[in-house]
């Protein structure tokens, strides 16, 4: 294996950031350029380079200790950033979704202004997600969190002549500002209680019960005691800030509005990559910084795994029941995304009081996020294709679409049935993995909730499939163009979703190794 400098471990994130800067440079040279092929090609190339680096590093042993034959964990900026197997796993998700979204957008934004800005904002947000995957401190996590959020606000409102887009962007911005404030205040309380912000140092403070300091990379104990009540409130506020990014109940209100009002590729990006970024921060923070054993040993600090169990069950039921009552396909998919946040929360909720089975349950959540990234992104990109054709937003508007666009509708069928958990794509195995994680620790309530909500989701997903293949069209519909970029992205996502059936073993092995090493 080629020995690279330590900073090169951030190559997946740097590739995304450099590509965004290159797009801004191209736009500054020719501000009026509408060369969609050039802008889209640069964006897709940058995303694929980021994906190639992440795949190379994760299979090359980066993040695996040298004693186990790996390249070791890359630690940067005095431990503020850590590139390990978990960071690389989520960088793969982010880069994959970004590549699909930028490829599909070459057709979707062809007639819109601000094309270079659109691609640059997507890649800047994606670079923030990649950095967030490696964040090992609440300080760096907050900065990366904002780098993810600020471009997202502009992306939702990018259609400045569309009132729905502008309104969605404003609502998203206002709720996001409140969430950031809550997150920042929670960080300040954790710092006030422990004296440190680095995850491993926070864990040392909680474990020893004494305030810590970090000097020259080493953790040193102080004589002051950690105030458990302040720490508990701080943890809950940090959880609230992260739950906003995950679109978990009751912090999900922004998601349906933002997804429905924004361009469909942006909705795909936010519901897949942005959700993954929120979960990687949750996995890292609540596995390293706030260890379950130390927290449950103190009667003054709330048992956070109980909070996650409640959060997972409520999010599953609220998301799926709300989706079942929608009459617009895009809004249905938005609430479906909320329900899937509940499924992934099982990765943190399926724990015993001692933390047994933690790696198994966390790897199940990680594996589901990777599969979800392809099938959910593909579903939203199909909606983008329907919008491109001028198809309406309601279920009946999709009637008979399968006869005019059989390939795209077949891909959409794969996405929806895989999201429901049928054995037509990788979604079946990822949900079964989550189900096994609940049984592993005897979390019967979580297991029952997962089964009930999966059955409910099949009902509303089937409405779209029935409309496309069974129902008769309600009026005349003319489809005279088949956009190459959108079609390629949709078919690619469908192919990967199907290939994840035989390839799920590799995904689960990578996720398990990452969780165990964490």
Automatic annotation (TrEMBL):
<feature type="transmembrane region" description="Helical">
    <location>
        <begin position="276"/>
        <end position="295"/>
    </location>
</feature>
<dbReference type="GO" id="GO:0008137">
    <property type="term" value="F:NADH dehydrogenase (ubiquinone) activity"/>
</dbReference>
<feature type="transmembrane region" description="Helical">
    <location>
        <begin position="86"/>
        <end position="106"/>
    </location>
</feature>
<dbReference type="GO" id="GO:0042773">
    <property type="term" value="P:ATP synthesis coupled electron transport"/>
</dbReference>
<feature type="transmembrane region" description="Helical">
    <location>
        <begin position="441"/>
        <end position="461"/>
    </location>
</feature>
<feature type="transmembrane region" description="Helical">
    <location>
        <begin position="38"/>
        <end position="59"/>
    </location>
</feature>
<feature type="transmembrane region" description="Helical">
    <location>
        <begin position="407"/>
        <end position="429"/>
    </location>
</feature>
<dbReference type="InterPro" id="IPR010096">
    <property type="entry name" value="NADH-Q_OxRdtase_suN/2"/>
</dbReference>
<feature type="transmembrane region" description="Helical">
    <location>
        <begin position="141"/>
        <end position="160"/>
    </location>
</feature>
<feature type="transmembrane region" description="Helical">
    <location>
        <begin position="230"/>
        <end position="255"/>
    </location>
</feature>
<feature type="transmembrane region" description="Helical">
    <location>
        <begin position="172"/>
        <end position="193"/>
    </location>
</feature>
<feature type="transmembrane region" description="Helical">
    <location>
        <begin position="334"/>
        <end position="353"/>
    </location>
</feature>
<feature type="transmembrane region" description="Helical">
    <location>
        <begin position="482"/>
        <end position="504"/>
    </location>
</feature>
<feature type="transmembrane region" description="Helical">
    <location>
        <begin position="365"/>
        <end position="386"/>
    </location>
</feature>
<protein>
    <submittedName>
        <fullName>NADH-quinone oxidoreductase subunit N</fullName>
    </submittedName>
</protein>
<feature type="transmembrane region" description="Helical">
    <location>
        <begin position="6"/>
        <end position="26"/>
    </location>
</feature>
<dbReference type="Pfam" id="PF00361">
    <property type="entry name" value="Proton_antipo_M"/>
</dbReference>
<dbReference type="InterPro" id="IPR001750">
    <property type="entry name" value="ND/Mrp_TM"/>
</dbReference>
<keyword id="KW-0812">Transmembrane</keyword>
<feature type="transmembrane region" description="Helical">
    <location>
        <begin position="118"/>
        <end position="135"/>
    </location>
</feature>
<dbReference type="GO" id="GO:0016020">
    <property type="term" value="C:membrane"/>
</dbReference>
<feature type="transmembrane region" description="Helical">
    <location>
        <begin position="301"/>
        <end position="322"/>
    </location>
</feature>
<feature type="domain" description="NADH:quinone oxidoreductase/Mrp antiporter transmembrane">
    <location>
        <begin position="135"/>
        <end position="456"/>
    </location>
</feature>
<keyword id="KW-1133">Transmembrane helix</keyword>
<keyword id="KW-0472">Membrane</keyword>
């Amino acid at each position: 294996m080629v020995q690279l400098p330590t900073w090169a471990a951030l190559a997946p994130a740097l590739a995304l950031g450099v590509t965004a800067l290159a797009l801004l440079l191209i736009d500054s040279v020719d501000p009026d350029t509408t060369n969609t092929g050039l802008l889209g090609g640069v964006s897709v190339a940058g995303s694929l380079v980021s994906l190639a680096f992440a795949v190379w590093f994760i299979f090359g042993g980066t993040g695996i200790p040298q004693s186990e034959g790996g390249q070791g964990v890359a630690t940067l900026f005095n431990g503020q950033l850590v590139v390990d197997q978990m960071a690389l796993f989520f960088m793969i998700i982010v880069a994959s979704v970004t590549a699909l979204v930028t490829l599909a957008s070459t057709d979707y934004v062809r007639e819109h202004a601000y094309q270079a800005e659109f691609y640059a904002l997507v890649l800047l947000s994606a670079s923030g997600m990649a950095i967030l995957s490696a964040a090992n401190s609440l300080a760096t996590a907050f900065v990366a969190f904002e780098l993810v959020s600020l471009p997202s606000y502009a992306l939702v409102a990018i259609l400045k002549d569309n009132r729905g887009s502008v309104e969605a962007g404003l609502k998203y911005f206002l709720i996001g500002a409140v969430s950031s404030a809550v997150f920042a205040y929670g960080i300040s309380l954790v710092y006030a209680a422990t004296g440190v912000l680095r995850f491993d140092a926070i864990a040392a403070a909680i474990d020893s019960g004494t305030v810590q300091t970090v000097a020259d990379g080493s953790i040193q104990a102080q004589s002051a005691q950690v105030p458990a009540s302040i720490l508990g409130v701080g943890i809950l506020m940090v959880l609230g800030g992260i739950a906003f990014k995950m679109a978990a109940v009751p912090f999900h209100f922004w998601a349906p509005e933002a997804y429905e009002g924004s361009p469909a590729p942006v909705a795909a990006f936010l519901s897949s990559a942005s959700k993954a970024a929120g979960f990687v921060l949750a996995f890292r923070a609540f596995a390293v910084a706030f260890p379950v054993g130390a927290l449950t040993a103190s009667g003054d600090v709330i048992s956070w795994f109980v909070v996650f169990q409640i959060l997972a069950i409520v999010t599953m039921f609220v998301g799926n029941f709300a989706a079942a009552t929608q009459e617009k396909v895009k809004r249905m998919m938005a609430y479906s995304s909320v329900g899937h946040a509940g499924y992934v929360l099982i990765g943190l909720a399926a724990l015993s009081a001692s933390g047994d089975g933690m790696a198994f349950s966390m790897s199940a959540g990680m594996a589901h996020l990777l599969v979800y990234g392809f099938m959910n992104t593909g579903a939203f990109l199909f909606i983008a294709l329907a919008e491109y054709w001028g198809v309406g937003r309601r279920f009946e508007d999709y009637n008979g679409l399968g006869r005019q666009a059989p390939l795209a509708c077949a891909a959409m069928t794969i996405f929806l049935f895989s999201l429901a958990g049928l054995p037509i794509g990788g979604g079946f195995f990822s949900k079964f993995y989550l189900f096994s994680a609940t049984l592993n620790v005897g979390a019967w309530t979580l297991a029952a909730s997962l089964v009930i909500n999966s059955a409910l989701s099949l009902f509303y997903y089937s409405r779209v499939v029935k409309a496309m293949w069974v129902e008769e069209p309600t009026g005349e519909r003319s489809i005279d163009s088949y956009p190459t970029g959108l079609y390629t992205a949709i078919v690619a996502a469908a192919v990967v979703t199907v290939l994840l059936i035989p390839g799920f073993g590799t995904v689960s092995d990578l996720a398990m190794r990452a969780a165990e090493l964490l």
